[in-house]
Amino acid sequence: MKKYLPILFFCTLILGSCYKDADNTKPPQIVIETSEVFINTSISGKVLDSAGELVSDYTIMVNNEWNEVNSDGFFLKLNNLKKKGQTFYVFKNDAQIGIKTHLLVENDINHMEIWQHEVLKKEVVNKDNKTVSLNGSLVADFSNTQWDTEYNGNVIARYVDIPPSISLTQVGYNDVSDVLAIESKGGFYLNLETGEGTSIGVNPEHPIIIQANNLEDDVNSIFKFDSSEEVWVWVMDIKEGTDIELLGEGYYTFANYSSGVFVEGIVTKENKPVAYQRIDWDLANLTNTICTTEKGKWIGLLPENEDVNLNLINPCEETVQTLTLGIDLEDVQGENLIIEDNDNYQLLDMTILDCEGNVVTNPILDVSNDSGIDNYFFTSQYADRWISVCDEFTIAPINESTGEEGTEFDWSTDITGDLGVLTACDEFKDGYSWIKIQGEERFYPAFTINQDGERTILEEPDGIVKLYFKGIDEGVYDVDEVNIFINDPNFGDKGYYIKCENSPVGCGIDYFNVTHLDTGENGMIRAAFSGDVWMQTLSPQVAGIFKVEGVIVIKR
């Protein structure tokens, strides 16, 4: 197996400095050796409770820095993170409710989900009560346990069961410091202190015994979180009925594992990155999940010297493509996973504007479907990349700087045309109209809609802009089916005028796409258009062919 260079970083903060239920015992000395890389990057994600519901108002601690989160999701810009396994801690109401060790890509936006565990329970251990039930199948037995001091009083056990559905880490180390790809399947936390609140250690000759019964999916080992170096360390291999000897308190996870190598790459479709793509990899009884970054990059710790299946999963839990990657014995970079033709992707060819028409440079896309809501963070409004979607979904842009949210609308992979211009402005939640002429832009309130049986009219409330198209259905209309009227002296510096409401050959609008046309209650109308139109400015009056484009969105 491959060995690694010594760690250069030792975290100055252990759990005990921020959480009184600390791991202050002295387990066997294990020197972790790794070619660790320290990076600057960003993290977006969410904290979920046991039912999969979003948790809000919590604190994330990383590298001794506390980050308050007052919304459902979090977005953190952080420095000096461990690329090959950074640990994040979640606190709520002064109690720790989560922990996650995650692999990271530098100078990007990584995505992570942390699952909440319950608040610690408390039980007294004394001569009359020698066991603590961590859950229905795990019992900590203190019958033969001795402390590392001459203490004879009551001992307070603080503990919590972490269900198998929660993954605490993807990376671990064995007792000779080899890196391991692990599938974490829950575990538990256990801490001991005297009646006076002082942490108490365990005599190695007389450890705590835990009987492992009803193990989840035949897990084959148990790992302990070494809080001094913030890594997960192999404790022992186990099987049904194994006596687990615990010498130190803290977090433990049950896991399957294999010798691993770090693999980095990118996911692309039509030579453009695929952001926030979920990848489930599997090999025999070992599985795990990777998520690409905002730039489509990914890092995974995969079993060495194996052919590993990489399953690309959409938000509706459907496998849209499976790729097989041959893993060697050395770390590799540059693995490009190319997505073939597939309808479960949306190209984010769009621009997001704020209330004043300025480009939003750090937008969030709130994308929801039957399986839940995902918040996608981007570092540029020109998010010219793909995201994985269900056949139908709802999308709403959010201004990360102000928290304002724009018009929410339904979208589908069956819709022809791009997303175009979106807004992140509370004022436009009920719709908006954006028109650009010769590089000058203007927002209008949501238009009204009228239909006369053969023709549809989209009209600005004061009647200064009207668009006509010969039809009452969704679809793309020809240039001779679209007419336009504008008389707006306040548009730009000069104002614009055109009266072309009845021309049988149209007015130059050669692209007119009605993506939504639901005139019923709670319905939505959306049309996008562009063309070269003969019109004039109003002050001064100068006629010419001007480039015109726009988007009209009406919510009923």
Report the total helices. Answer: 0
Q: How many strands, what sense, and barrel or not for the largest sheet?
A: 12 strands, mixed
Helix content: under 10%
Give the strand content: over 45%
- Given helix and strand content, the structural type is mainly beta
Describe the overall structure:
The chain has about 550 residues and is mainly β. The protein is built from no helices and 44 strands. Strands 8, 11, 12, 13, 15, 16, 18, 19, 22, 25, 26 and 30 form a twelve-stranded mixed beta sheet that branches. Strands 34, 35, 36, 37, 38, 39, 40, 41, 42, 43 and 44 form an eleven-stranded antiparallel beta sheet that branches. A four-stranded antiparallel beta sheet has the order 3-2-5-6, with no helix packed on it. The chain starts with about 35 loop residues before the first strand and ends with a strand. The model is unreliable at about 1-35 (pLDDT under 50).
Task: List key phrases describing it.
single chain; 556 residues; mainly beta; eleven-stranded antiparallel beta sheet; 44 strands; disordered N terminus
